[in-house]
């Protein structure tokens, strides 16, 4: 096995580790001009790299933000991004060493939760992450798809200039707020690399904003993809919805009405939408909207189990005792009594037992304890506890992140 060292990167190593990440993701390194624009969004803080003879061979990165948890509270969270290993150093323990260093840093700083989007779902369970929220991919046929007459049509939709998109959308996202479990804050460093390069000057995306009685209350970021060919010169473009957020159902419906009214478009697609988004029901014929896929979206890792469990609320049911095992953060291993009145560590016998990645799946409320038990992820010591756990952890709306990172 090749020797390597894992440590935090320095300011002078930002560019080389960013280039390493892009190569690991099969993307060309950035030019000097692009780096000048996005480099500030790749700070040295919160990055650990593996070095072999002074050269970086792996990188893991994160940034600190907040996440909405069931009950309406927001909790500090580490958003893990930028994970990659050089092609000639994979499967040699590099990723495991970097993830262990990153997790130790989270625990030392008192970060209760970590989240990520998994490029390969088989990787992250062994580091304690569980699939906590799903997203669906929608396809809507145009021009056949039309909203039915009872859908509210108030307000106004306008297109922003690229310069306006850079300045106005961050404020609007904050105004809309983290209103659903799983939604995360977008700190300053997120916008240049994830939004501005697409919707700002030089980007290919357009931004539509809806205004209601109280001002701006929703936005959609989208691009059109030319689908014409020699054989089909009149084929309409595909409209790809990249980002859509709204403060309420009226604003959301108005944005979809706008998107479905764009001329010379044959279909509209949107990925990682909430699994309960009722777009098909807004149409006169629901068959014109199809769900192409439902995929894992947000993965969650409890770093401080006691703090994470105590931060969310629970529905009315008798308490259950959970036995949690965490091999990477042994302080989390133990028994926790969870009920509508709160959470406490206990020495009582466990009703349900599982590893910390399963707690990550249960935490935001998408998966039920019964489903996880049927999948072999929960050791059921008291069968009657499954129904109680289902009721305790259930949420009114399924969790959704809605932010790529």
Secondary structure layout:
Layout: E1 5-8, H1 14-24, H2 32-38, E2 47-52, E3 55-68, E4 74-85, H3 94-109, E5 113-117, H4 121-124, E6 130-141, E7 156-159, H5 162-176, H6 190-199, E8 206-212, E9 215-225, E10 237-246, H7 249-259, E11 265-273, H8 279-282, E12 289-302, H9 305-311, E13 320-325, E14 334-339, E15 342-346, E16 352-355, H10 356-363, H11 369-374, E17 379-380, H12 384-393
Parallel strand pairs: 4-5, 10-11, 13-16
Antiparallel strand pairs: 1-2, 2-3, 3-4, 5-12, 6-11, 6-12, 7-8, 8-9, 9-10, 13-14, 14-15, 16-17
Account of the protein in words:
It is a single chain. With 405 residues, the chain is α+β, with helices and mostly antiparallel strands. It has three domains: 5-128, Gcn5-related N-acetyltransferase (GNAT) (Aminopeptidase), CATH 3.40.630; 136-295, Gcn5-related N-acetyltransferase (GNAT) (Aminopeptidase, 3-Layer(aba) Sandwich), CATH 3.40.630.30; 304-393, SCP2 sterol-binding domain (Nonspecific Lipid-transfer Protein, Chain A, 2-Layer Sandwich). The protein has helices at 14-24, 32-38, 94-109, 121-124, 162-176, 190-199, 249-259, 279-282, 305-311, 356-363, 369-374, 384-393; strands at residues 5-8, 47-52, 55-68, 74-85, 113-117, 130-141, 156-159, 206-212, 215-225, 237-246, 265-273, 289-302, 320-325, 334-339, 342-346, 352-355, 379-380. The strands form two sheets. Strands 1-2-3-4-5-12-6-11-10-9-8-7 form a twelve-stranded mixed sheet, with helices on both faces. Helix 7 (249-259) links the parallel strand 10 (237-246) and strand 11. The chain is globular. The two termini are 32 Å apart. The mean pLDDT is 96.
């Amino acid at each position: 096995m090749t020797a390597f060292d894992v440590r935090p990167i320095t300011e002078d190593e930002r560019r080389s580790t960013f280039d390493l990440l892009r190569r690991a993701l099969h993307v060309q390194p950035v030019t000097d001009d692009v780096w000048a624009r996005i480099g500030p969004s790749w700070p040295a803080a919160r990055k650990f790299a593996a070095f072999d003879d002074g050269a970086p061979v792996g990188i893991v990165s994160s940034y600190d933000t907040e996440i909405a948890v069931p009950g309406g509270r927001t909790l500090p969270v580490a958003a893990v991004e930028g994970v990659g290993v050089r092609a000639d150093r994979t499967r040699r323990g590099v990723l495991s060493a970097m993830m262990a260093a990153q997790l130790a840093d989270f625990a030392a700083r008192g970060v209760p939760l970590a989240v990520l989007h998994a490029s390969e779902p088989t990787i992250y369970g062994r580091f304690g992450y569980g699939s906590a929220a799903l997203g669906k991919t929608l396809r809507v046929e145009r021009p056949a798809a039309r909203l039915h007459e009872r859908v509210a049509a108030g307000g106004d939709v306008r297109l922003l200039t690229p310069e306006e998109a850079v300045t106005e959308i961050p404020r609007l996202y904050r105004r809309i707020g983290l209103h659903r479990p799983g939604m995360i804050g977008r700190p300053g460093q997120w916008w240049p690399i994830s939004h501005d390069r697409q919707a700002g000057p030089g980007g290919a995306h357009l931004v539509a904003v809806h205004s209601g009685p109280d001002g701006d209350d929703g936005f959609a970021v989208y691009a059109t993809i030319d689908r014409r060919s020699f054989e089909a010169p009149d084929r309409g473009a595909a409209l790809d919805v990249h980002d859509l957020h709204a403060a309420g159902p009226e604003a959301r419906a108005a944005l979809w009405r706008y998107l479905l009214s764009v001329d010379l478009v044959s279909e509209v697609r949107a990925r990682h939408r909430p699994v309960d988004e009722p777009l098909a029901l807004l149409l006169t014929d629901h068959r014109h909207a199809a769900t192409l896929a439902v995929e894992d979206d947000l993965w969650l890792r409890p770093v401080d189990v006691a703090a994470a469990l105590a931060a969310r609320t629970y529905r009315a049911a008798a308490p259950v005792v959970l036995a949690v095992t965490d091999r990477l953060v042994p302080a989390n291993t133990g028994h926790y009594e969870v009920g509508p009145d709160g959470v406490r560590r206990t020495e009582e016998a466990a009703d349900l037992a599982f590893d910390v990645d399963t707690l990550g799946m249960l935490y935001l409320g998408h998966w039920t304890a019964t489903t996880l038990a049927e999948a072999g992820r929960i050791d059921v010591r008291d069968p009657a506890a499954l129904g109680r756990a289902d009721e305790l952890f259930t949420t009114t709306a399924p969790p959704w992140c809605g932010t790529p990172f």
